[in-house]
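User: quick one, sequence for these tokens?
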């Protein structure tokens, strides 16, 4: 059905423009994509809490295992899956790649649920782990590495859960959304998508609390204490099948075959390779700034998240209780994120431009880091003893500060940060979009997390325990935040002008827009494109 230009360009009223800037004819496209993002994010939230609970509370394990997993397992996994993604996307349509990759995840989760986890005790590599424990040169800081080896089964599960975010959420969904959404639509749609993703956090957290209370069913292949694991994995697989069905319906009923084909690279184009992606990165300042932003965020988040999980692990003694608390924080994060998505995210971009929206997340992390890491630094000191007279349990107070940081930091990341990042891809040519997605979402985010893990491993080697590394982690976080803020401001000069002028960002256009600010300083009469 053809929509007239008058209908398409009809302005919204002030209240509707603020709360719901969507035309009625756009609902047929918006609602199914909203539902798709909601379901993918629901699974992501369940898997995130589940993977940490299982590996941290496993026999002989602890919070120290997380940095080893992220550098020794997640990073290689990201490299392998990014290579597979670039290989598949060069040979098949995005729809075929979506089905192939998602089916692979679901098959593994079914196998883990019925075979691997019920037999986990038989799959532990105790002999190898005990031998590694006798090697003096490994030292006290190798506890996490030995635990990762001992529980190789859970290590693989952790990696696959982590890859759901990198591959299914970032590469598959956002890659699809960027190809079928125009810039003008994205400024209105993406805030709504973020709303769906963050509502999923509320629902997944509440769902996990309900599963925890389900009476024991003896016919399941799990004992009474682990039944919640089986029920959560059954839910993951069931929702995964719904996601595949919804994606099929979207492609065959909303985005007609001709439009989908038009969004694909020509069949005769050469295959997308990682070497081409890195070559483009070397030439593009725009993509370089984006990589700095993503790496900076992931270093900050990884360092803070491991420290927060360390505090949670000290308070909660079982994997079931740890999982329940993390899902409770997921609910609160969802409430914060929904508020940001509904009132702040899209409105900031439309009213004040890309740069203003992109700066919100690093500023929030900067402020909350001051509170949490100050609490960690003074924990056990005379200052905290004085505060204890007013706040009761100092350890719980520090955990509260960390939980506030996680709720606010994740909430902003899932809304304004992700929306701003995805909009920044849209001005790029289609081929460069794919190269950029492979670099930024496939590798830069993993390198950022791995960079945080390398930092922890080095600090463990030098200072031994988690409690001793707090001052050094604090300094590194603030350095990463400064780099993140700098790259955001520099990139904003390019992306604001590109979006306002509806410019396709070839390498030549990047250079031209990047020099606008310099020319304006030299000659105040230089015309500069104003943002909407």
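Assistant:
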């Amino acid at each position: 059905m053809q929509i007239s230009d008058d209908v398409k360009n009809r302005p919204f009223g002030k209240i509707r423009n603020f709360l719901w800037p969507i035309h009625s004819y756009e609902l047929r496209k918006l609602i199914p994509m909203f539902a798709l993002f909601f379901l993918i994010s629901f699974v992501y939230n369940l898997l995130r809490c589940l993977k940490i609970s299982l590996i941290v509370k496993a026999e002989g394990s602890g919070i120290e295992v997380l940095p080893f997993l992220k550098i020794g397992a997640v990073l290689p996994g990201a490299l392998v899956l990014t290579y597979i993604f670039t290989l598949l996307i060069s040979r098949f349509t995005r729809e075929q790649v979506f089905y192939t990759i998602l089916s692979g995840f679901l098959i593994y989760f079914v196998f883990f649920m019925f075979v691997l986890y019920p037999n986990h005790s038989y799959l532990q590599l105790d002999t190898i782990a005990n031998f590694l424990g006798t090697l003096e040169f490994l030292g006290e800081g190798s506890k996490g590495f030995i635990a990762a080896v001992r529980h190789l089964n859970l290590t693989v599960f952790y990696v696959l859960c982590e890859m759901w975010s990198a591959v299914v959420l970032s590469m598959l969904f956002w890659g699809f959304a960027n190809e079928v959404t125009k810039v003008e639509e994205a400024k209105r749609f993406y805030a709504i998508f973020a709303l769906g993703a963050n509502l999923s956090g509320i629902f997944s957290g509440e769902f996990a609390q309900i599963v925890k209370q389900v009476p024991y069913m003896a016919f399941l292949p799990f004992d009474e204490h682990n039944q919640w694991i089986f029920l959560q994995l059954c839910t993951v697989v069931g929702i995964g099948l719904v996601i595949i069905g919804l994606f099929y319906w979207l492609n065959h009923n909303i985005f007609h075959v001709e439009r989908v084909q038009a969004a694909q690279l020509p069949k005769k184009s050469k295959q997308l390779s990682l070497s081409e992606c890195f070559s483009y990165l070397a030439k593009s300042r725009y993509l370089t700034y984006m990589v700095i932003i993503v790496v900076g965020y992931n270093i900050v988040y990884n360092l803070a998240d491991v420290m927060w999980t360390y505090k949670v692990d000290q308070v909660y003694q079982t994997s079931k209780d740890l999982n329940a608390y993390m899902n409770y924080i997921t609910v609160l994060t969802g409430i914060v994120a929904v508020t940001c998505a509904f009132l702040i995210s899209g409105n900031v971009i439309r009213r004040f431009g890309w740069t203003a929206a992109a700066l919100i997340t690093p500023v929030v992390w900067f402020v909350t880091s001051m509170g949490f890491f100050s609490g960690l630094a003074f924990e056990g000191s005379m200052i905290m003893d004085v505060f204890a007279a007013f706040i009761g349990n100092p350890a719980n107070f520090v955990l509260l500060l960390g939980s506030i940081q996680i709720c606010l930091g994740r909430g902003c990341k899932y809304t304004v940060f992700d929306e701003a990042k995805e909009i920044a891809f849209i001005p790029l040519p289609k081929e460069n979009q794919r190269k950029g997605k492979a670099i930024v979402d496939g590798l830069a985010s993993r390198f950022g997390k791995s960079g945080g893990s390398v930092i922890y491993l080095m600090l463990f080697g030098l200072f031994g325990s988690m409690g001793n590394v707090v001052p050094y982690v604090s300094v590194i976080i603030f350095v990463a935040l400064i780099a993140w803020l700098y790259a955001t401001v520099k990139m904003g000069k390019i992306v604001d002008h590109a979006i306002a002028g509806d410019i396709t960002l070839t390498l030549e256009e990047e250079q031209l827009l990047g020099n606008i600010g310099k020319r304006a300083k030299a000659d105040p009469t230089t015309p500069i494109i104003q943002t909407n």
